[in-house]
Amino acid sequence: EELNGVGNLMDFLDEPFPDVGTYEDFHTIDWLREKSRDTDRHRKITSKSKESIWEFIKSLLDAWSGWLVMLLIGLLSGTLAGVIDLAVDWMTDLKEGVCLSALWYSHEQCCWTSNETTFADRDKCPQWQKWAELMTGYTEGAGVYLLNYFLYVLWALFFSFLAVSLVRVFAPYACGSGIPEIKTILSGFIIRGYLGKWTLLIKTVTLVLAVSSGLSLGKEGPLVHVACCCGNLFCSLFSKYSKNEGKRREVLSAAAAAGVSVAFGAPIGGVLFSLEEVSYYFPLKTLWRSFFAALVAAFTLRSINPFGNNRLVLFYVEYHTPWYMAELVPFILLGVFGGLWGTLFIRCNIAWCRRRKTTRLGKYPVLEVIAVTGITAVLAFPNPYTRRSTSELISELFNDCGALESSQLCDYINNPNMSRSVDDIPDRPAGPGVYSALWQLTLALVFKIVITIFTFGMKIPSGLFIPSMAVGAIAGRIVGIAVEQMAYHHHDWIIFKNWCRPGADCVTPGLYAMVGAAACLGGVTRMTVSLVVIMFELTGGLEYIVPLMAAAVTSKWVADAFGKEGIYEAHIQLNGYPYLDQDEFTHRTLATDVMRPRRNEPPLAVLTQDSTTVEDVETLIKDTDYNGFPVVVSHESERLIGFVQRRDLILNIKNARQKQDGVVSNSVVYFTEDAPQIPASNPQPLKLRRILNLSPFTVTDHTPMETVVDIFRKLGLRQCLVTRSGNSCGCYKVVAEQHIEVNKGVCYFVDMFIISSVSEN
């Protein structure tokens, strides 16, 4: 006999028919049932493996299928990430000009191959021409500037229009970041099509278009969605995962780790991100497999080498100065700024998204994307720091100013008598280029803060990691330059006296940019451990873990003071997804206070074990919208026998009417081992014991609610029955964070959410 009655599910057929034991769209899975199924499947394979060599080989293949899936996920997600990176570089540069020697080369690649590039003008080469130069033959002048400006805006509008059109027509689920939905799916919710093949294809293509359009968004969050789509694709190849929603979610957790691994070049950070931020159920076995998937994905990306620097990381930096204890003060202030920015962003973005959902604005997604892109492109082009891609901006802000740097940010006044090594340049007074850059960065900071609020949540793929890091990096670089100049001009102040001598290289502004980026990303997402690991993997700055930790913790404390929710939890709540958070349940209530039915409500709708007819069951299903029913001995005793799912009842009765002779409306349905005593003139009864869950989870009516909520969290229950003296008296289902939603009348737990246009009562 199978555990929980899960197994063949039909007495009158040789094999179970499709869809029995599965879940409908926008419903929650039963983790206990899925675990029980997998235990039964594994027990069968183990016992069969002793029968023959072939069965033993099959058992080995089954054991290794998990590692094979991880290998495939790593290879595909790494390849897709590499292709996306290369395509984004090319299409971002396409807005400004074209490479005449090879159309598919980006600006950087075009000038690599040129023999006519000088070191001072390393970004200029005859093979690369801006659009105005190509059309008019002139390189300077107001007309040339305006023509380049116009074409920049035109390309941006074209890319974003193409992205939103593809999403709207082919894959509506390809929009947004995807992480809120991934979190919800990993907690046990079913959203069919969200991880499908079309979503994978369209998200990959439109992600390139959206990032290339110059909008204030990143590709990191959507890459997690892309990797999970890869995971879901490979799950369908193995029945071990395709037929078990619980096992499938273990694979998706590992796929999320691979997604972050290729997004940032941070395999360890990816595993920690999946553990800390995304996954709901994360056993040790999944940790190992996540590590392997992240490793393979990172190795694949490194083989493709999309950044052309033979490094896996996006913003590799080399600082030549250690940090000093006194610098913890500005680092902590950056943490405070990150927490305040995170709070401001979450509140403003959620208010705007709510307005989009509840007003006519939501009916015109294409128009909204076009409008935001137009405003972004028009305001971004005049400022060199907003015109370039956000990744390039962050990379420049992180960089230390060496002797060979030609950036405006490195326009310091040099001492002609200086005879130091290249790596040890002392602090110098800022030149006019630095002050000009500071004004441009301040304008860029205001622009990024405002425009990101309106960009995140539009109907195109949009990640939040890079825009948040850009805001923090700009603020950090400004603070870093300010501290550097204070240390230079006032080195006799008590705070600088002990560690900053005249002529020494004391302050590294790029480090402040890195700390600011971590602080702002932490303020928005509320990540801590994984954030610090991602940041030091991203930059190679292992020595600067303490400043990063100080900023991340401060950022989280400040942001949590204004609200516990990160941006992803806020969007989960906004969309009405069922997600039970891990926070404390503080209400002092008992199970009897929450269960249904209550007094003055209709009695509990139940099935009896051997006296209900097929017609009675069909009427009950028609008249109610509960997803399952308790089975009791009789209406008089109401002693609980088990629980049966609505979907399984419908499928079994429909199949029995088609394939089993003699089953009619007045046939008796029985859930007992032996058929009830009925007259010979009566029609053939229908036995449904195999679909009965004989061990539904029950609590007594005096169980404290904090215990019940804890049980739901830790066991992943789909429903729970409330009994008094062994009799079924009610039931409920935990639906959302610190919220108990109870069914009307009987033990089925109605999902009270609206998702897209699908509503369930």
From TrEMBL:
The keyword Repressor does not apply. It is a multi-pass membrane protein. The keyword Nucleotide-binding applies. The chain crosses the membrane at residues 64-88, 149-171, 223-239, 251-275, 324-346, 366-385, 437-457, 464-483, 511-536. One of its GO terms (molecular function) is antiporter activity. InterPro entries: CBS_dom (IPR000644), CBS_dom_sf (IPR046342), Cl-channel_core (IPR014743), Cl_channel-4 (IPR002246), ClC (IPR001807). It is found in: Endosome membrane; Membrane. GO terms for cellular component: early endosome; endosome membrane; Golgi apparatus; plasma membrane; synaptic vesicle. Residues 595-659 form the CBS domain. Keywords: Antiport, ATP-binding, CBS domain, Chloride, Endosome, Ion transport, Membrane, Nucleotide-binding, Repeat, Transmembrane, Transmembrane helix, Transport. Belongs to the chloride channel (TC 2.A.49) family. This is Chloride channel protein. It comes from Cyprinus carpio carpio.
